[in-house]
Amino acid sequence: MFTPPQSPLPNKRAFSPRPDVAEEPESTIGMPASPSDIVKRQIGRRTTRWAMLLVPLVVIFITVSTQYLTGPVAFDAFAKPPEPMSWEKLTMHGHGWTHHKREPAPAPQLASLTSTSTSGAPTPTTTNATPVPTVPSSPPDLPTPFPQPFDADITQNFSSISCFNFFSNMTNTPAFRTCRPLSLLLESSNTFIEAQNNLTLLNSLMWGTCNTNTAKDQCVSNMNWFADALQSACAQDIKDRNTMTLTTLTALQAYSVTRDAGCITDPTTNTYCYVNAVRNTNPSDSYFYQMPLGIGVPKTATPLCSACTRSVMGIYAAALEDPAQAPTLTGLKKTYSPAADLAVQQCGAGYAQVTTSGGVSMLRGLSGWTGALAVLLCSALLFAGP
């Protein structure tokens, strides 16, 4: 039998590392982490999540608390509540007062302001030759008695005797008379309106309304009390839309903001802006002072774009954003937006804050809370992650 020869074996080759290539280290891929490393990683992730959740919460808390403490509501919370009043307290020492003539609410008769223009292209100012007296540096001689609202016959066609008695009592109480309410003088004081023909007298009267012997805060409290009492005593007259009752209620509620606007001074001339307005023959800017009473600025008015009117509009905008004042400023809510639109159209963007009453505050509040909710949602999602 033929047997094939065996196949030759392959030559042995020696495999040795190349001398110029370093030996590669062993791979660590797939090796499990030690228990201590796992614990550290878990603690690190947990700490990061808590930080991402707590930091936004702290920021939100600081923001909200700061806005609260600096706002009017916070101060109202800390303020001592005013002592409840009654007719007995209000009429104390008030028997020496007498009624004066009253004239029905006149049409706006004031004139425009002449302060330096701040923006836009103002209409040329027309002024009288009479110089405007400066703000008194010391108490001037005030007329006695001081002009008061309803200085004509107060008898009206009241629907109820209780409302008539309310007006009679209010106009005879020192709590009302000593506050010299400009908001009511503008509409219902014949003596005050006549004083516009005498700038020296008007200047003294404005000083008197801005510097009452009764503190302003107390006067605001007094007028709020009268406004509440009027709504109770004159409920039937309000229902019947009695003009005198409705305009008086609006003016009582607008006491503070009207006083603030009327007491603005022009720092360049040291004069009352209101007195400056009366001297001018263009009545456009003067309408702005009666806005809190629900008397709007005519669409045909041509504001002079004065610094005074800009300040007046700033006071109104702030009042409408003040939760302590805005709810009762019914007259200003009705007149502000059209006046602001007109002022911006005539004087340029930024001259007045254009917004619906309370609109800016509402949008600002919504955007703030929306942002806060978004931060909380993102933080919650991160915290719920692996």
Structural features, described:
With 386 residues, the chain is mainly alpha-helical. It has a domain at 99-123 and 155-355. 49% of the residues lie in helices and 1% in strands. It has 16 helices and two strands. It has helices at residues 35-69, 72-78, 87-90, 161-170, 174-177, 182-188, 190-194, 199-210, 216-233, 235-239, 243-253, 255-262, 273-279, 307-320, 330-347, 359-384, and strands spanning 265-266, 271-272. The chain has a two-stranded antiparallel sheet with strand order 1-2. α9 runs antiparallel to α11 (243-253), α12 (255-262) runs antiparallel to α14 (307-320) and α14 crosses α15. The longest helix is centred in the N-terminal third of the chain and has 35 residues, at 35-69. The chain is extended. The N and C termini lie far apart (78 Å). Residues 12-29, 66-82, 91-125 and 359-371 have low confidence and may be disordered. Residues 133-148 have a biased composition (Pro residues). Residues 1-35, 97-148 are annotated as: Disordered.
